[in-house]
Amino acid sequence: MQRPGTPLSALRASTSGQAFRQCMFDHWGLMSFDPLEVGSQESILVTHIRKRKGLKEQMTPLSEFEDKL
């Protein structure tokens, strides 16, 4: 059942009822250790996620994102 004024109702109205919501964010969770610390459980988790997403396993240094003007 759709309730007027909700995001789903607005989505369906904007697309003439053709679009459906597929996913919804659930929650954030805090990591108890530093994911940048080599060998920590969080570091291993981050490495697996980056590998699964096709990213480089090592995090890109911030200096590569800075403007070099």
Automatic annotation (TrEMBL):
<keyword id="KW-0963">Cytoplasm</keyword>
<keyword id="KW-0251">Elongation factor</keyword>
<protein>
    <submittedName>
        <fullName>EF-G domain III/V protein</fullName>
    </submittedName>
</protein>
<keyword id="KW-0648">Protein biosynthesis</keyword>
<dbReference type="InterPro" id="IPR035647">
    <property type="entry name" value="EFG_III/V"/>
</dbReference>
<dbReference type="GO" id="GO:0003746">
    <property type="term" value="F:translation elongation factor activity"/>
</dbReference>
